[in-house]
């Protein structure tokens, strides 16, 4: 790796909600920047005004904030290379397009849309597989390479619309070293004469991207594999602009595939496959009907940002050990581009859930209590923060998402009215019922501070002994009578949280109903 200061950038286009793959790209950039003591930059690439979507930029910002990716330079924070929105940098790019023309690496093209269509049709008719404006076809088009100089000048003077295209060499091998893929070699005949500047004077992605990466002194370009085909063109641009020596190092990340591996995970897959493909919920509009749409987000689905980050980090990278749990600081410590794989990564949402369960369990009860309190509030149930913390404390081993707390822990707040029939059929009988009645009578008053799980258990054991029963014969019936459910967290912890008065009352109610 070169000696220059490490400066990386995440460069999204605000054309819609940031896809989860984009979050992974941002994360890998961030991990490398932090690992190498570098700078993390965010640049908004909004040169394509037709695809601009209101709210997308703010959404990108919030998504990154939520997962904990900090930006050192950005449109919102500023920095030494401001502005960081390409639309606000428009005047910067012209000079470089002019330089390329002056040096013979680019040219003016005056072709009308009809002329371009006609060219494509001609090529299609001649069975050319991929009709393009390139080193061969440009010789038959209306551009400053084919027109006499004075005619070109006259067209320019008359304000005729034109684009500026890169003059890709006819027969040349373009090579560059990708940090993930090794040497990439592409023949220039496979590269078309891309438009660098549009007729409205706006640069295209390709020109703006290279100019900005150069001016912003970017050392590493880490981006998705879908940009690999553009890289040879970018290499040519660096060369022709005289910047090859400081060209950033490229690292094209592996594709993210659908869970079954049948293709690239797309923005539309989320709804189809039943899991979110966005970090945050997105409120958009259906491009066809104009109707408002809502797309699910990991945050709203109950994922903790730590879990999503850990999951995303492993989609294409691994530490080379069996350790799977990594906090952000641990990821920074362990991360290296060398360990990023070039093979595509399958998006396995079950793994994301597994991570979520892990991080949920690791969270202090007091931090999880607000989720339960919010749900209780919605149901008009009052509860102290302390009790909510106790409940989530015993329940967190049993849920995957914070919103499950209410569903799973309802019985802490509402006495059951129905009982698990399978357990009743197997475990309930007159003797068990009588024993539970005796237990209800034996329980100390609610106010008794020593009525903790252990005390409740020993009273239970003693009562059962006196009733001539083994505890194992009654335990499940006790659970069903008190909670309605056949399974749950530690039973005597549950009873202790409920309080002895409530437990006794529930046992008596169950005996009345079940006999
Ligand atoms: N604006 C491009 C995008 O939307 C950035 C590609 C790159 O990183 O060069 O992904």
- SS-based class: mainly alpha
Ligand roster: glutamic acid
Overall geometry comes to: elongated
- What is the strand tally? 13
Mean pLDDT: 95
- Sheet-strand content, in percent, reads 5-15%
Radius of gyration computed on alpha carbons: 32 Å
What's the CATH H-level homologous superfamily of the domain at 89-206?
Answer: Glutamyl-tRNA Synthetase, Domain 3
CATH class of the domain at 89-206: Alpha Beta
Low-confidence parts, pLDDT < 50 over ≥5 residues?
none
Level of helix content? 40-55%
Q: Major sheet: order of its strands?
A: 3-4-7
Annotated CATH topology of the domain at 89-206 = Glutamyl-tRNA Synthetase, domain 3
Number of helices: 20
Largest sheet: 3 strands, antiparallel
What is the CATH architecture descriptor of the domain at 89-206? Alpha-Beta Complex
Our measurement of the CA-to-CA distance between the termini, rounded to an integer number of angstroms, reads: 77 Å
Domain Glutamyl/glutaminyl-tRNA synthetase class Ib catalytic: 6-273, 297-354
Domain Aminoacyl-tRNA synthetase class I anticodon-binding: 372-510
Motif ('HIGH' region): 12-22
Catalytic activity: tRNA(Glu) + L-glutamate + ATP = L-glutamyl-tRNA(Glu) + AMP + diphosphate
